[in-house]
Write a structure and sequence with these properties.
Layout: H1 7-18, H2 21-47, H3 53-65, H4 69-91, H5 102-127, H6 131-139, H7 144-174, H8 186-197, H9 200-239
Helix pairs in contact: 1-8, 1-9, 2-3, 2-5, 3-5, 4-5, 5-7, 6-7, 7-9, 8-9
Length: 240
């Protein structure tokens, strides 16, 4: 404890902090998948200008993009129990608020945020497609669904993949705030270890290394995926 900085402590803490990695990755993957699915629906609603729904999506986007993630986490953490109690009182149910894990509160907040950002990424990608290609597909007898699946989505993926990569990198770093509502992820583990040993700096050095490595892996994965999609797109155009 007399050492100002203990290098050995970093290697000692690393395996213990890595125990929180599945929670971090779980939050990231589930929030990303749900965000893309819900965001796709919102993007289509805005592009097609669906009455009421498109206006709701615009207000939703404005609100989420204007509120810090930490506030969304607290709104979820304190708001969902209030909602469940209200349901219990209204319908006479007996849902136990205390049984809801902190992970669920965090997941709701991240999905809410991701849905907003992913919808904008998808909308921009879909709008970047040349409308002549869509019209040509419809002139060949394709339905709206067939045109979307065979023409719009493949081309939109080429545009969206780099931005998806940046967004998932931001998301995995953003999950570090989940420990503020008692989620024991990487940051949660680091805080616990730092509190026990009073070696906060060494614990957070470990945390920084883990996040850094995760972001590097994500970067390489999306670069590979981008090349794969671009190659397939060029090949299909060449065959045509």
């Amino acid at each position: 404890m007399n050492k100002i900085f203990d290098v050995k402590a970093i290697w000692e803490y690393l395996p213990k902090i890595l125990e929180g990695l599945p929670v971090t990755l779980g939050l990231t993957v589930v929030a990303m998948v749900l965000g893309v699915v819900l965001g796709f629906g919102m993007a289509i609603a805005r592009i097609r200008k669906v009455p009421v729904l498109s206006q709701f999506c615009s207000v939703y986007l404005s609100f989420v993009r204007g509120v810090p993630l930490m506030v969304l986490l607290y709104l979820s953490y304190y708001g969902i129990p209030i909602l469940l109690r209200a349901v219990n009182l209204e319908y006479g149910t007996d849902m136990n608020v205390n049984m809801v894990p902190a992970f669920a509160f965090a997941l709701v907040a991240f999905v809410v945020q991701e849905t907003a950002y992913e919808s904008e990424i998808i909308r921009a990608a879909l709008l970047s497609i040349d409308r002549k290609e869509i019209e040509a597909a419809k002139s060949l007898g394709m339905t709206t669904l067939q045109t979307m699946v065979r023409v719009e989505i493949p081309q939109a993926l080429v545009v969206a993949i780099p931005t998806f990569g940046n967004q998932i990198t931001s998301l995995i770093k953003g999950t570090s705030l989940a420990f503020m509502i008692a989620v024991v992820d990487i940051m949660g583990k680091a805080k616990i270890i730092g509190g026990r040993t009073l070696r906060y700096f060494e614990a957070y050095i470990c945390t920084a290394i883990i996040y850094w490595v995760c972001c590097i892996i994500i970067g390489f994965a999306f670069k590979w995926l981008e090349k794969k999609v671009n190659y397939r797109e060029r090949k299909e155009k060449k065959d045509d």
